Amino acid sequence: MQSATAVGEIRRFNRFYTNIIGVIDRHILRSPYSLTEVRILFEVFHDPACNAREIRKFLAVDEGYLSRTIDALVKKGLLKRTRSPEDGRVFLLSLSSKGRREFLRLNSSAESAIESMIDHLSEQDISEVIEKMRKIQELLSREEENHEDTI
Q: Rounded CA gap, 70 and 57, in Å?
């Protein structure tokens, strides 16, 4: 397949998928939180003693933007910051009880939205979608790793 054709097909798929994600995000984010804020809550929920540097690896966002967003979550009472006992320059992040409640509510909404998106598919179709999504991740991650090796 020619490069221009591949680029066009990938962009077509991206437009299709971002429309799907947009529907899900609008459903989830009938809340006062941005997608970045929800992703931070997700990362902290799954690693209750993480720090901003670790979150930045997953989100690949500007350090200043991440810092401001974390500050906003702390001010909203969703996150707690405590100094690391090993390195006083590092702050560990954890969810407050309010943050945990909000995350669980948002997570439940996300799961419901995805369930409704696939409820018309057969088990075989769902398996095929998942298999192909995994394959896309595998192929694009491999390319990303190869690209990082050349930098």
A: 15
